[in-house]
Specification:
Chain A is mainly beta. Chain A is built from no helices and 11 strands. In chain A, strand 6 and strand 7 form a beta hairpin. Classes of the chains: A mainly beta, B mainly beta.
């Protein structure tokens, strides 16, 4: 059974304090690993797609990386507006499995 | 450009009542999806439609029906609502890149 596990469940950072979120996956034949951002009361917003181990994608203060077993979302010098829940999802065949998310709070 | 629009945003039902959640997308996407999101469970796929005229069951289809009315619209129907269907429902669409989903803002349903 496909499984996606995100850690930690919640993370509090001070503004400017860099950190990483983890997404571990167990799927047969990964076709893609996706990161989303979800603000309270809103739908998830697509951020990145990673297709193969070693691949990296960047957007502003966010960088996503992928290995054969996990993906990391690195947040460099975060700002309060980066506060949100970050979801990852793994695609195997036509089946997309979501993790439960990491709730990130960045304090000013 | 509205993207994915869902209605209603909020709904309270009594057990046994029926209702339909509406979804429309203006991105000319072929694929559309209905998910539910519950605390501690993540996003779970209820039904999806890979193209106009086709629908398939997802992970948690029991108690739901769907209709792909045309390329733009995909509705979700609860025939006899149960308290276990209290959840936040998201409609999404995707183009050629499966996994890159565009979500609506959600419909918050409470079944008493």
């Amino acid at each position: 059974e496909d499984q996606v596990t995100q850690s930690p469940e919640a993370l509090r950072l001070q503004e400017g304090e860099s950190s990483s979120l983890n997404c571990s996956y167990t799927v047969s034949g990964l076709r893609g690993l996706f990161w989303y951002r979800q603000d309270p009361g809103k739908g998830p917003e697509f951020l990145f797609t990673l297709y193969s181990a070693g691949e990296e994608k960047e957007k502003e203060r966010l960088k996503a990386t992928l290995t054969k077993k996990e993906s990391f979302l690195h947040i460099t010098a975060p700002k309060p507006e980066d506060s949100a829940t970050y979801l990852c999802a793994a695609l195997s065949g036509s089946r997309l499995t979501f993790g439960e998310g990491t709730q990130l709070t960045v304090n000013p | 450009n509205a993207g994915v629009t869902q209605t209603p945003k909020f709904q309270v039902l009594k057990t046994g009542q029926s209702m339909t959640l509406q979804c429309a997308q203006d991105m000319n996407h072929n694929s559309m999806y209905w998910y539910r999101q519950d605390p501690g469970m993540g996003l779970r796929l209820i039904y999806y439609s890979a193209s106009e005229g086709t629908t398939d069951k997802g992970e948690v289809p029991n108690g739901y029906n769907v209709s792909r009315l045309n390329k733009r619209e995909f509705s979700l129907r609860l025939e006899s609502a149960a308290p276990s269907q209290t959840s936040v429902y998201f409609c999404a669409s995707s183009g050629e890149l499966v996994g890159e989903l565009f979500f609506g803002e959600g419909s918050r349903l409470t079944v008493l």
